[in-house]
Amino acid sequence: MIAQRHVLQTRYRQQGVALIMAMVFLMILTIIGVTVMSTTSLQEKMAGNVQDKHSAFQAAESALRAAESLVETWAAKPTDFVNNTNGYYMPQPGSELPWWESIDWTPNAGAALTVAATLDGVSIQPTYIIEDMGQLPGTGGGASSIVTGFAPPAAVSGDASMYRITARGIGRTDTAVAIVQSVYRK
Q1: 60 with 178: CB under 8 angstroms?
Q2: Does residue 32 carry a pLDDT above 70?
Q3: Closest CA to 112 of 89, 132, 92
């Protein structure tokens, strides 16, 4: 009789241990699941931000190419540069800020030109400005360059106009902004 009581008491004590172990394993699996979900969510946000940044850069690049194409079509320098408005600017002597930092880039604000083609995947269409940097005399050209793989152009005769083109693109959200520049000789 005493042996039978001892077996029954041992059996009753062991029944609670299985429940506690199952709860511990369930808690561990829950913690792992929550960690995986938060990591996945963070990676999704990072991928979205990278895509947004690339959209802004591509929009700025398209505006830069559109401005360069516009400059290429000019037979003579437009007279709009005198007014420093409508996307055409002369250098501002004595100013601490360059034009691209001091103008209103909002489309239709009158300070920058908007790309004619409508781009998908951007919240605001890209804009650009063109600055007249003055005349540059012809050069003798050259056969070598300090930049690997770049061959300088042959000698350029006569004066050429220099234009600094600044383009601004915005991605899918207003927080992703890219600004690119080029100096164009014509």
Answers
A1: yes
A2: yes
A3: 89
Contact yes or no for 126/115 (Cβ under 8 A): yes
Strand pairing partners for 132? 163
* H-helix segments, 74-168: 99-102
Q: Give Dmax (Cα) for the chain.
A: 120
- In this model, does residue 146 exceed pLDDT 80? no
Among 175, 156, 158, 178, smallest CA distance to 167 is for 178
Summarize the confidence of residues 100-111 as an average pLDDT.
Answer: 81
Question: How far apart are the C-alpha atoms of 3 and 5, rounded to whole Å?
Answer: 6
> With contact defined as beta carbons under 8 Å apart, do 113 and 97 qualify?
no
Q: What is the spatial distance between Cα 153 and Cα 142, in angstroms, rounded to a whole number?
A: 7
Quote the percentage of the chain above a pLDDT of 90. Answer: 30
Collapsing DSSP to helix, strand or coil, 14 comes out as helix
Q: What is the model's pLDDT at position 65?
A: 93
State the average pLDDT over residues 49-65.
93
Instruction: Compute φ and ψ for 29, nearest 5 degrees.
Output: -65, -35
Angle at the Cα of 184 from the Cα atoms of 120 and 106, rounded to 5 degrees: 40
pLDDT at res. 110: 78
